[in-house]
What we know:
mainly alpha; Growth Hormone, Chain: A; 17 helices
Amino acid sequence: MRKFTPHQWGVIAACFILLGLFFGFNFMFGIFMKPLIAEFGWTVSATSAAYTIYMAMVAVCGVLMGGLADRYGCRPVILAGSLLAGGSVALAGSVQNLWQFYLLTGVLAGLGRSALQAPVSAYLQRAFTANRGLATGLAGSGSGMGLILISPLAGWAIASHGWRTAYLLLGLLFAALAVPVAMLLRPTDEQREEAPRPGKPLAAYEPSDALLPEASLGMSEIVKRRPFWAILGSHTTDCLCHSVLILHIVPMAIEAGVNQVQAASLVGAMGIGQFLGRVLIGVLSDRAGAKRALLTALLLQTLPVPLLWVSPTLPAFFVVAAMVGLGLGGHGTMYPLVTREFYGPKRVGLLFGTFTSGASVGMALGGLMGGLLYDLSGDYSLAIGFSFGMGVVSLLFVLLYPGRRAQAAPAPQGAVQPAG
């Protein structure tokens, strides 16, 4: 029995490519650091500050882009973001000083790429009714492929043509892939679940299958309720947990005596785990529900972390890298699904953009905390403890989520009562 129609497979493929570009380009900052420092003499902290600016822009603008996608549709937002993101990367090859580097790779690239993640995820949640978890997982697995393919491509381009030409080629590649692919995302697909359009009364769009009663009462009520803060809290602390390991697991392994080549291969193990986690946790969510599937993903990434205390050997590092990758991939699939399941399709862009902003803050602070705790203690023991502690907190937040049997409170007169 076919899970999807040919057109739906086309939508999944388009979102796979867009999310692959988003995540792949997110992780190529470090590849350009040494060539930039060698040419300009910038410090490591000054150069890496561009990534902090970038993450701050993604955090702040994710809410805005999600709201714009809810109001005007996802495709125009994605198209504008693709052109801005690709153009800013291409122009980065012409920088002559630090402020230009910050503007192009931090501010403009962050603004452009924030128009991809939340709108693409929102589109998926509206375009699919049956097998939504599987569709989200398959499309989201593009993030793992982006990590696996784009970083080596960037390294080859720098080695073969220099960093300036590499930036130009990668920026043109981003726009050349993202723009035509975004055109495949038809507005009629997201209107199947009644995405809002300007000029139509909001009452006509009240979600019919949202789990939470506040979904029909507006954002002013949503932000007053526990589920909103539980989702935001779990997404932020979950990212604090794995961002420490994403940025520091290679130096952790080298410090433990693993040779550099084997340590670098841990990133590949994490990427493969993420690729598999996206799909497997998505399938689990279709059978067990979004809350249980997300809890499983966070357990996978959290429970193995203490192995780095008990047995800091190469096999232990590979187990942790693979499990963190599985959890990272699963979490990436589940948060759009949790948002859609709890609140319905109407505000999924705005809400997921908000939750993504919390995740971006967690990603930025987690890597920073890992470095600060290392400097404070002289080894990675405190950083490992911090990562594990944040993982436990993220699990506690998920336990605060409502279950599928949550009772819907009476809606105010004139509002549509969502299904409980």
